[in-house]
Amino acid sequence: MKHGYYLDHSHELKEKLLSAVPRDVLVALHQRSALRHLFVAGRQYLFLGLATAALWQGRYPWLWIPAVFFQGLTVFNFTILLHEVVHHAVFERPRRRTEGLLGWVYALPSGISRTQFTRWHLDHHAELGSTADDPKRAHLSPKRNARWYKALYCTPALFPIYFRAAAREAATYTPELQRQIRLERRVTIALHLAALAAAFFFGGFWVALRVYAIPVFFVFPIAFTLNRLGQHYNVNPENPANWTTLVRGSLVWDFLFLDSNYHLEHHYFPGVPMYHLPRLQRVLDPFYAREGMEYQTYGKLLRGWFLENRAPHTDWRRDLA
Question: Sign (positive/negative) of CA torsion 139, 5, 31, 226?
Fold first, then answer.
C-alpha cells in the first residue's frame, strides 16, 4: 500500500511554486499540442529509419559509429514519448483509446510493458523521497556504491538489473495487473526477437550486430544511465524542492533527450508537456536562487558519479564520508 510520501512532504513547496509562476504563464505552459507531439514522434521514427539504413549499408562504413549511437539514443527516446502519454501531455483532453495505442507504439522499441511503465512512473511521482515506496529508488538505484557496480548500468547488465527491479515491484500488484504486464512484455520481446531474426536473415550476422545488437544492448544502457544521472542522484534530502536534480538546459541536450533533462521542472508540474519545460526552467530561475539550488551539468554529474564515487540520493556538495 502506497502512502503518497511526496504529497505529504511538499505542501509548502506547492505554495511556493504557485507563487513563483504567474497564473497566466502556468496556464500557457500547460497548453498541449497533439500536432507538435506527433511531429516529434514522427521525427524519431525518421531518425530510426535513417540510422537503420546507415547501419545496414556497407559502402560507407564511416557512418556506422555515429549511426549506432543515434540508433540507441532514439530507441531510448521512445520511453520519453511514452512518458508524455502517461501524464496525458499529448492531447488537450485525455483520449484513452488513442493514448492506449500510442502507449503500445512507444513501448515496443524499448521492449517494455506500457502498463508497468505507467504504474511504476506514477508511483514514483507519488512516493518521491521515500526509500521504500518509490520504485525507482527502492529497486533500481544502485545499492552498492562502487564504481564497477555503477558501470554495469552502462552495459547489457542493465537489462537483468531493470527486469529484476520491475519484477520485484510487480509482485506487489494485483493478479490482473500482473497478467497484463506479462502479456505486454511477451509481445514486445517477441517483436524484438523477430526484428533481430529478420536483420540476421536478410543482412547476415554483421548487419544484425550493427542494426540491432550494439545499439540496443550497448548504446541504450549508456543513454539510460546518463539520463538517470540527471534525475534524483544529486539532491538535497532536507529540502523537498531539491529532491530532484536541477540540470541546466541546453540546445544540444534538449534535442538529444527530448527535453527530459528538465526532470526537476517535470516533477514540479507533471502536466506541462516536454516542449514547454525549457521555458518553465527560465521562469523558475529566481525561485532556484532563493532556495539555494545549484545548476548541474552532465559533465559534473558524470564526474561526481564515477570519479568522486558519490552515493545516489545524497547532497554531492557535502564532503565525501
Answer: negative
